[in-house]
Amino acid sequence: MTTSSTVRLQREPFDAAAEAAKLTRGRTDAGAVVTFIGICRGSEAGQPIAALTLEHYPGMAEAEIERHVAEALERWPLLGVTVIHRYGRIVPGEDIVMVVTVSSHRQAAFAAAEFLMDYLKTRAPFWKQVEKADGTTWVDAKAADDAAAERWSAPGRKHAAAE
Amino acid sequence: MTTSSTVRLQREPFDAAAEAAKLTRGRTDAGAVVTFIGICRGSEAGQPIAALTLEHYPGMAEAEIERHVAEALERWPLLGVTVIHRYGRIVPGEDIVMVVTVSSHRQAAFAAAEFLMDYLKTRAPFWKQVEKADGTTWVDAKAADDAAAERWSAPGRKHAAAE
Amino acid sequence: MKIRYFAWVRERVGKPEEDIEVPSGVATVAELMAWLASRGEEYAHAFANPKVIRAAIDRAHVRPDAAIENAGEIAFFPPMTGG
Amino acid sequence: MKIRYFAWVRERVGKPEEDIEVPSGVATVAELMAWLASRGEEYAHAFANPKVIRAAIDRAHVRPDAAIENAGEIAFFPPMTGG
């Protein structure tokens, strides 16, 4: 069983279908592919926005994501994982982030994709700033996202920032 | 909020990325797209296979899937759902089924896609026959799939075939 | 009454569908399976283990105790393996 | 010691990073935040509510009670909003 994993941070758009196809090409043990795409919405907290700008902590962001990909590979029987997260200015309708997970069975692919997205939302060092008609503001972290990430923590292995 | 839903049964391959793009085109309220693709694996119960042939119950299969798509739309705030299931002969590496769910938030998109796949596995009237070196056999239903489907049932609303 | 068979039930019975006059004493899906099993060797083979066979009346899943009165089409098949 | 700031912490402090001589009595991340807050109006504003500020030492998340001894780079930022 060969496992392929890729983590990429980039300013440019990505091609999620091409990335998913790369993970399954030439192998016949893949039975399930889950692709998550996060898109920039046209409003934030009920107000229309012109754009999002994503700031990140270079070096730490890659390391954090790679660490969580490694954890996903340990927890589930995955054949491949690709995570691509954009930074910089992104306008409504554009993709922000993609996660692809490949496994022989669907439960592992779904669980790993959700796990990675929950962690990206709460632990990867990215910050979203929104441009609205009346200026720019930073997006507040959501308690719901923290709760979603927390459900993956086994007792006694809670992460530092989740206190 | 416009909701789009499509159910299609077909012999031909499908283009999952194009189907997902159709659901988000021209709208800026979509924040999350989950695409599941089920692929024909090269082995079944440890033995190599030459192909799968999917038989279905025309009329009932469409109705069953549409009924579950309607249930998903009721349970989660979805902006779009597309389900395409192939029938006929499918060789290893080819896609069998796809589910795309679109929502403003990822939890709804993930949950609805899993719900639909669990139901397709256990309730949609399709049957898989495998071609192996020593002849053809029918794939046995998996207890794990029944258990996966059962978790979506509220007490008192268990379905007929799940006894 | 139109009866349809799918997958290995179809293979064992040897036909995909047929029109059958069901005797008036046969009231439920389970009774229909028992009666079908008595119609010959191929039917006995197909319905040898009725517990694993699923049924649909007019394209909706039903339990073995469902009444077949007023059914237009009854289908028998193994547990589904789609997806 | 190199200190980095991100998002609104960076905006309030007015710079993305700086090299600082930290007094020897300052031993933990929480103490470092309190000391930084005393360095001027912009720092007081940035660290006014230290409970909401997260920290990383050498690119790994740490709790407020983490020791800063031996740290090469300490970063302060609001809760993450990626994905």
Helix content of chain C: 25-40%
Strand content of chain C: 15-25%
How many strands, which pairing sense, and closed or not: the largest β-sheet of chain C? 5 strands, mixed
CATH topology of chain A: Aldehyde Oxidoreductase, domain 3
Question: From the helix content, strand content and strand pairing of chain A, which structural class follows?
Answer: alpha+beta
Total DSSP E strands of chain A = 10
CATH class of chain C: Alpha Beta
User: Which chain pair shows the most residues in contact?
Assistant: A-B, 33 and 33 residues
What is the topology, as strand order, of the major beta sheet of chain C?
2-1-5-3-4
Instruction: Supply the helix-strand structural class of chain C.
Output: alpha+beta
Shape of chain A: globular
Oligomer: heterotetramer
Assign the CATH architecture of chain C. Roll
Q: The CATH topology of chain C is what?
A: Ubiquitin-like (UB roll)
Explain this structure.
The complex is a heterotetramer, with two copies of chain A (163 residues) and two copies of chain C (83 residues). Chain A has 163 residues and is an alpha+beta fold. Chain A has a single domain, classed as Molybdopterin biosynthesis MoaE subunit (Aldehyde Oxidoreductase, domain 3, Alpha-Beta Complex), CATH 3.90.1170. Chain A is built from four helices and ten strands; from the N terminus they run E-H-E-E-E-E-H-E-E-E-H-E-E-H. Chain A has a four-stranded mixed beta sheet, sandwiched between helices. In chain A, strand 9 and strand 10 form a beta hairpin. In chain A, helix 2 (60-75) runs antiparallel to helix 3. The termini of chain A are far apart. Mean pLDDT of chain A is 92; it is low at 156-163. Chain C is 27% helix and 23% strand. Chain C has one domain (2-77): Roll (Ubiquitin-like (UB roll)). Chain C is α+β, with helices and mostly antiparallel strands and 83 residues long. In chain C, strands 2-1-5-3-4 form a five-stranded mixed beta sheet. In chain C, strand 3 (54-57) and strand 4 (60-62) form a beta hairpin. The mean pLDDT of chain C is 97. The chains are: A alpha+beta (163), C alpha+beta (83). Chains in contact: A-B, A-D, B-C.
